[in-house]
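Please, structure for the following, as tokens.
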Amino acid sequence: KIEKLQTDLERTIAEYTEATEKYSKGEISFSDYSVLAYEGEKAQIKQEALQKVRERAEYLRELGEQKHFTPYLFDESTFNSVYGEPAKPNQQQSALLAIATIVLLLGGTMAYERQSGITSLLSSTFRGRKKLLWSKVAAAALLTLLVGGIVYGMETYAFYQTCTQDIWKVAVQNLSVLENFPLPCSIQGFLTGLFIFRLFCLFTYGMVVLLLSSLVKRMESAYLLGVAVLVLPSLLYHYFDLNLFQYGAAVLPLEG
């Protein structure tokens, strides 16, 4: 099929080249030349694209032999539109939304005890504060999993809606952006791992929010501290280009 397409393109380009010579000699009219020129220029563009496809296919074949995966040539724009470089702004916004939601939901959890003056009372109850603490950790875990599941579940669903079913089983190394991924897995396996990793990061951030909340005596201060530690550095890095805050930007691990 590719060979036939190549032959047809070469024939069209040859006709265009011949028409150019004839038109320069006045042997054909401008209208006839315009039709052939239009078709010829389209054929040249298609030929360049076909050459790129061939080069990519050959590269994947060689890469597959080196890294022991089955090469599969497909349109990567669907993946890139959700997980690639063009989707970076969306990923940043999703990560900020998830982190800010966690800060809002958990920021006052521990500080409320001190603000209400019930810390001593809780310490004197049966089993003290230990059981309550673990209950709060469990609740925080559920909330972070819920937030992450909604935010990144919608992202995964968006990709699922736009890609064909056979793409899920393709080796992830077939993607240009992940050709150096060290583990042998399919695109489905990679996205599953990415989803779990993001949930783990959000759970970690939830624990950080609880820790920060335990350090202050008022809920307002706990919220401000959570924003200052987990949200503000990401805003300053991404939207104000302050590279100094790169290492404190909590959204970076979530961007994939």
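The two ends are 37 Å apart (CA to CA). Residues 30-67 form the longest helix (38 residues).
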